[in-house]
Design goal:
Helices cover 57% and strands 10% of the residues. By secondary structure, it is an alpha/beta fold.
Length: 750
């Protein structure tokens, strides 16, 4: 008997010493692959949906769903099979997933439908990447369950390995925009990811050898199970994970709408979300849970009075505030979930319920909210849910919590009733009054920071006031689609009607004259499209050089471009958003189309794809494609311009509207022009413009042609100059783009 023990002891010591050094890097690489594939594959898909930020929102929901399925599989394996059999089955699953590599978009998903885009996109992700992602996502909980059963001295708290896993996820998300995307094409990224998957399978096999040793099996066989979690505990796990998961979708959509639908901005909120797990899933959290709860009101108060503001002058400060508040909420929720964690033998069940909560949060923010609400109401709803989910609100019982919240709730209801029933005269300038009210509410919330229920009630008041009261503008119509939120508003004097997509003005029409009478004549284009501006001059130059029989305008907006049309010209518009088409065609909202081009054809769908499929050839193609202030990357690639040139007449002209607050894009267009053998001229309108007075906006436009002569007299006009790509700037392709450098060039030059 002594000889048997003597032989087992070295094996036990060897298994114990190998467990942590092997499990930690295996979990790290698993998470690295899991979260690097998300931005990589979503970038592959993005061109099919017009570069909409909603693509990432739906992708997040799909990935959360795959994660949940993977956790179900891991939970069943951990509960039903011994480590040896579970390891063999999981290795077989990884081998089957490896046979599906390299990753690519599944056949049959080339062109999205006109209706049901969300379900189509979910199907695309499921058939293209679902199986490998599920196999990969199950690896982390399985390894942790094996470690918990190993008898290792640290096996009592395997949740620390979850922190290591999320650290790998965090590194992957930060590495993608700064290292992977700038250095590798999408094809190169896919091949590198496949190699990493093979390495992971080898590491999992080595970990499985430890998990199936007789020492580990013996320790697992004598394990005593803890009592099962109750219903309320499981609901708490689910709710505390659903709120941050929904918020990461809502926050990402909120901050990317005005910049770009790009991995650079997708990954940062998600990386911060994962970092909160690293911060709290440990014996000593980076920031004590009590301190998080104490500081949380001080970031929620300013956020509550700014979410619905359209004036984003201090854009970086707005992004910073939203991200800091999001991190604090995630720390609070995840810290509370960790405080309520079960013992190690219930680990996979804990992950299963928290993953299910993540799916529910993502489905609410990414799938349900765009169909339920005509504005971004899911964002404040999730913030309020976070406040109400924390135990301090209900410490005195439900009745006490409701009494505490009552003053703010009654005030919010009163404001909502007054604003819905009372027509405040437009002539009254109440902007200052609103600012004072908002500052007062924020100050009161800070004063009530130590009374969580009372604070939550006044947070409702803050969202109500800022969401319903917009002095200086009267909301005429609201619409929300897969591609964003649209507001049609009138100015306080009733003179102008405006279309906002997100926070960006997408068109304006003067509807009343100086004495307040309706204007019945042909409407005059404003904003970027005013007569005499760069877009107007590009149209005139193409017309004077060769005439305009057919014109293609990619991007509709309010239809302002239609009033540049002349008799005998055939203008055709290409627009991806059906809500924009509905707004532009409604003469009660805007009259550009009905007055200037009532018979103009409008083709619904992604402009790049539908233009390429058009049977016609055009003398002028105007690319005026924006999602809020962001220009979709896929319309500016070398392959995209090859498609435009195929639809251009031999002496035709392409005019590209590249105005952008955050990215320098003229150099990118110049690089594509150089690669395509085209001449390129640019004008950045620097005339003095007072948008609030005349609603004319300074535009930046690049015009392209095969020969300089096809541009007529444009090159000699004031402000126009030949443009070449800046040093180091190369043409973007469908396989490669670098948005981060475009942002840095806009901010710092070069």
């Amino acid at each position: 008997m002594a000889s048997i023990e003597d032989t087992r002891a070295p094996r036990a010591k060897s298994a114990f010493s190998a467990a942590v050094p092997l499990y930690t890097p295996t979990l790290f690489i698993s998470a690295l692959l899991l979260f690097s594939v998300q931005p990589m594959f979503t970038k592959m898909v993005l061109p099919r949906l017009g570069g909409s930020p909603a693509v990432w929102s739906v992708a997040m929901v799909a990935f959360q769903g795959f994660l949940f399925v993977g956790y179900i599989y891991a939970h069943l394996l951990a509960r039903l099979l011994a480590p040896a059999r579970a390891a063999l089955l999981h290795l077989a699953l990884l081998a089957l997933a490896a046979a599906m590599l390299p990753l690519g978009v599944a056949a049959g998903f080339d062109t999205p439908p006109s209706d049901g885009v969300t379900l189509w996109l979910v199907g695309l992700f499921t058939l293209s990447i679902g199986f490998p992602f599920i196999a990969l996502s199950a690896t982390a909980p399985l390894l942790q369950s094996w470690f918990a059963a190993s008898g290792h001295p640290q096996a009592g708290n395997p949740y620390v390995l979850y922190a290591a896993s999320n650290l790998g996820s965090f590194c992957a998300l930060l590495a993608y925009p700064f290292l992977i995307e700038p250095m590798l094409t999408l094809q190169g990224q896919s091949l590198a990811w496949s190699a990493g998957f093979s390495l992971l399978a080898l590491l999992v096999a080595m970990a499985a050898c430890i998990a199936t040793s007789r020492v580990i099996a013996q320790s697992a066989s004598i394990r005593v199970e803890s009592p099962a979690a109750g219903v309320m505990q499981r609901l708490a796990w689910m709710l505390l994970s659903a709120i941050p998961a929904g918020l990461v979708v809502a926050v990402t959509a909120y901050i990317t709408t005005d910049v770009a639908a790009a991995p650079f901005l997708w990954v940062f909120p998600l990386a911060l979300y994962l970092l909160t797990f690293v911060a709290v899933f440990r014996a000593r959290p980076w920031l004590p849970h009590d301190a998080v709860l104490r500081y949380l009101p001080y970031v929620i108060a300013p956020l509550a009075v700014s979410v619905f503001g359209r004036d984003k002058v201090f854009f970086l400060a707005t992004i910073a505030l939203n991200l800091v508040a999001f991190v604090m909420i995630a720390l609070a929720c995840h810290g509370e979930a960790y405080r309520r964690r079960p013992s190690a033998d219930r680990l996979t069940e804990f992950y299963l319920w928290t993953s299910f909560g993540g799916v529910l949060g993502g489905v609410f923010a990414g799938l349900l909210a765009p169909n339920l609400f005509n504005d971004i109401y899911e964002y404040p709803i999730l913030i309020l849910a976070a406040l109400l989910a924390l135990p301090a609100v209900w410490n005195g019982g439900v009745r006490h919590g409701l009494r505490e919240a009552a003053p703010g709730l009654i005030a919010a209801l009163s404001v909502a009733v007054v604003l819905s029933l009372v027509d405040i005269p437009r002539a009254l300038d109440l902007d200052l009054v609103r600012h004072v009210a908002v500052v007062g509410i924020a100050a009161l919330m800070l004063f009530l920071a130590r009374r969580p229920a009372r604070f939550a009630g006044f947070a409702v008041l803050a969202f109500t006031v800022t969401g319903l009261w917009q002095p200086g503008m009267t909301i005429v119509a609201k619409a929300r689609s897969f591609f964003g939120v649209h507001h049609v508003v009138e100015t306080s004097d009733g003179a102008y009607r405006l279309l906002f997509h997100g926070t960006t003005l997408h068109g304006a029409e003067r509807v009343r004259d100086v004495i307040g009478q309706p204007i019945g004549d042909r409407p005059e284009p404003l904003t970027y499209y005013y007569f005499g501006g760069p877009i107007s001059e590009a149209v005139q130059a193409a017309r004077s050089a060769n005439g305009l029989a057919r014109v293609a305008a990619v991007g509709l907006g309010t239809g302002s471009l239609a009033c540049h049309r002349r008799a005998g010209e055939d203008w055709q518009f290409f627009e991806i958003d059906p809500e924009v088409v509905r707004i532009a065609r409604d003469p009660r909202l805007f009259r550009f189309l009905s007055a200037c081009a009532p018979d103009a054809r409008i083709v619904l769908g992604d402009g790049r794809l539908t233009l390429a499929a058009s049977p016609d050839r055009y003398d002028l193609i105007v690319l005026d494609v924006f999602s809020s202030d962001a220009i979709p990357v896929h319309v500016l690639t070398r392959e995209a311009f090859a498609g435009y040139l195929a639809r251009l007449t031999p002496r035709g002209v392409i005019a590209v509207h590249v105005s952008n607050r955050h990215m320098e894009l003229a150099g990118i267009v110049a690089a594509v022009a150089q690669d395509s053998g085209l001449v390129a001229y640019v004008r950045r309108d620097d005339t003095i413009s007072d948008l609030a007075e005349d609603y004319r906006s300074n535009a930046e436009v690049v015009v392209l042609a095969r020969n300089v002569a096809d541009l007529g007299g444009l090159p000699s006009r004031k402000g126009w100059r030949a443009i070449e790509p800046p040093a180091g700037v190369t043409a973007w392709t469908d396989d490669y783009s670098d948005i981060l450098r475009a942002i840095l060039r806009r901010k710092f030059g070069g």
